[in-house]
Amino acid sequence: MKLSPIALGLALAASSVDGMININWLVKIVADKLKQFEIPIVNEFIDSEVKKALADTAQIQRPPLVAVQNGDTLSYKILQIPDMHYTGNNFFPCIDKPEGMKKLCFEKYMTEMIGNLLDDVKPDFVVFTGDQIESLWYPQTWLTSVDAIDTYSRQVITRKLPWSMVFGNHDESIAPQLFSNRKIMMAYIESLEYSYAKYGPFDIGGAGNYELTLKSPNSTDLMHMYFADTHNDGDIASGQLEYMKSLSASHKGQDVPALMFFHIPMPEYNEFAGVGQGAKREPIGGHANHSLYNAIVEMGDVKATFCGHDHLNDFCFKKDNLHMCYGGGVGFGAAYGKKDHPRTARIIEWSRTSSKEAISTWLYRINQDNSNPDKYSIYERTLY
To answer: Which residues, in sequence order, are CB contacts of 87 under 8 Å at separation 6+?
Structure first.
């Protein structure tokens, strides 16, 4: 049987899970070659138009993110949704249809599932941690990429849920002058309702390097959230690292915990040895660059990191003073999975009483009983 280029690409991507081929390495080589043929004036045009759009969205005033008060307890529930890989085609068939699923499996099932997930978890905030859309193996023009963004964001917007995101290595085409472009997508995402995502500084590397702050009802800072673009290979630029460190330094003296979200895991995730929460089911896809971990250690306020990328990994563990967590993967359609393993998302809950502050996390397994989750403690301290 002759495979179409799209089907062949997806088959290769799926085979990389078992270590047969390093598909991300291959994509990087092709992308680097194509970059040599980019026309400078096109990039200048894109940058100019994106900056104009960002100037407009900078005028949007979002209400602060405020912890929920219930008696003397403050709380905030974050839902991490990893690796959807939307093509925008409702009838794109599922690559790895779950065992026991009798009906036909198409991408539109994922849309229904995410709606059910949101209604069941009832989060206060949603973070999409990359590979929201599939642009590597499914051609996305500038316009169709926006349509795919609308499809997934509509689920949070219609529920009036605040949300943010980072890009993954599948969100942008390897030929962004012609097809899906992260700069254009980020400018659009900033403009959407209930979106707290930000482009961040324009020239430090990538798009989507920013921070958000959880506030108390009386407007004091309770928790910071950092977001970083790990590009197409996980190799974060020095400008991004310096920016993250400067954000953290601006909070010195607050004694406030922070979380960080990005797509491609740091190489330190390889040190997971089975102690913690969840499991490792495929190789760690991180770039062999320890600069992000070193920067986080230097920052000092980050208690945990959350990534996606490797759909079958859903573990959390602690290295030194930092917890490192995977979200798993929720994608049905172009996203690979495992037929006998449920798709997963991750819930993170911050809480504070007059005597204690804590952050815990647990996995949400799609189409499973989630009434008694195995909670993993990230942070806890006694308040006086």
So the answer is: 107, 133, 134, 138, 140, 148, 333, 334
Please state the domain count of the chain. 1
Residue 79 three-state SS: strand
Domain ranges, residue 13: 5-382
Given the structure tokens 């990994």, which residue do they identify?
313
CATH number at residue 112: 3.60.21.10
Rg (CA), the chain: 20
How far apart CA 137 and CA 174 sit, in angstroms, is 10
Q: In the beta sheet, which residues pair with residue 65?
A: 214
Q: Has this prediction a pTM greater than 0.90?
A: yes
Other CB atoms within 10 Å distance of the CB of residue 87:
24
CB distance 190 to 54 below 8 Å: yes
Neighbour-count burial for 32-55, b at 16+ CB within 10 Å, e otherwise: eeeeeeeeeeeeeebeeebeebbe
> Where does the pLDDT of residue 233 fall: very low under 50, low under 70, confident under 90, or very high at 90 and above?
confident
CA distance 236 to 231: 7
Range list of H helices, the chain: 5-15, 23-35, 40-57, 107-121, 142-157, 182-191, 238-249, 291-299
d(CA 334, CA 339): 14
Residues 113-148 have pLDDT tens digits of 999 999 999 999 999 999 999 998 898 999 999 999
Q: How far is CA 219 from CA 60, 103, 215, 216, 357, in A?
A: 20, 49, 5, 5, 17
**Which residues lie closer than 8 Å to 26 by C-beta, 6 or more apart?**
none
Tell me if 64 sits within 8 A of 215, measured CB to CB. Answer: yes
